[in-house]
Amino acid sequence: MTIPMETSFLEQHASDMAKSPGDESPIRGLPSTAAVAGHPIHPMIIPYPIAFLTSALATDIAARRTGDAFWSRASKILIGAGILSGLAAGAVGAIDYYTIRRAREKTVGKLHAYGNPLALGLAAINLAVRRNKDGEAPAGGTVALTGATAALLGVTGWAGAELSYRHMVGVAGHGDQHDHMEKQVVQ
């Protein structure tokens, strides 16, 4: 017995929304090659380095304003965690980048692929500058480095979203698959 599943407005109109401006054919999604049970790994991991490295800007500002050593230590931990999680996200993202041609063909793909290692490099320099300064409030230049890292992640994060949402890289296809959504019920 099959029971048709209700589809959302988005699912019903996904093919129309995926068309490029001036193009009447829908862009077909290209599934991620780095996936677990069909679920792309890269989007599961990327919130962590973004959250850690952008939060470090807030803790740097708090350290400068309050002079409390807690905030300086928190910044170091956040930056270290951002680098480690960023390396993991980058490794998985590199698999998709080098195995999905569309990702390499798009300018936003290049910006995403080459800008993120630059952001991690800035974060590594930032962490090295803090190495022997436990509990000290970061200098203005160090806070600026944290801000530059966060700003660069904003740009590269936007580029990654463009790849996924506009160019359909790392997502499952759409269109026909939504026309036949049925749920099998076992009796």
Automatic annotation (TrEMBL):
Residues of the signal peptide: none
Residues annotated as transmembrane: 77-99, 111-129, 141-161
Protein's name according to its UniProt entry: DUF2231 domain-containing protein
Domain DUF2231, chain residue ranges per copy: 38-172
Keywords assigned by UniProt, alphabetized: Membrane, Transmembrane, Transmembrane helix
One family name in Pfam for this protein: DUF2231
Keyword Transport: no
InterPro entries: DUF2231_TM (IPR019251)
